[in-house]
Amino acid sequence: MKLPQSESQALQADIPDFERIIVNDIPLLDVRAPIEYDRGCIGDAVNAPLLDDAQREMIGIEYADHGQQAAIELGLRHVTDEVKADRLQQWLEFTRQNPEGYLYCYRGGLRSTIAQQWLQEAGIKYPKIAGGYKALRNYLLEQFERLATEANILVLAAPTGSGKTNLIVRLRQSVDIEGLAKHRGSAFGSMFVPQPTQVNWENRVASEWLRASTRSSRPVMFESESHLIGRIYLPVFLQNALRAAPIVELVSPTEDRIAQIRQDYITTAMGTYQQTMTLEQSYVQLESFISHNLGRIKRRLGGERHQYLSGLVSQAVAELKAGSGTETIDKIVSSLLHDYYDPLYAHKMIGREDQVVFKGSAEEILSWVDNQA
Question: What's this model's pTM, rounded to 2 decimal places?
Answer without folding.
Answer: 0.87
